[in-house]
Amino acid sequence: MVNISEDRRPLPLSVLDLVPVVSGKTPADSFKNTLDLAQNAERFGYRRYWMAEHHNMAGIASSATSILISHVAGGTSKIRVGSGGIMLPNHSPLVIAEQFGTLESLFPGRIDLGLGRAPGTDLLTAMALRRNLDGAGEDFAQNLAELREYLSAENSGAGVRAIPGEGLDIPIWLLGSSTYSAQLAGILGLPFSFASHFAPNLLFTALQVYRESFRPSEVLQEPYAMACVNVIAADSDEEAQRLATSLYMAFLNIIKGTRTTLQPPVDNMDSVWNEAERNAVKQMLSYTFIGCAETIKTKIQAFADDTRVDEIMIAGMIHDHHARVKSYKILSELQIKKYEVYIRT
Question: What is the value of pTM for the model shown?
Answer without folding.
Answer: 0.93
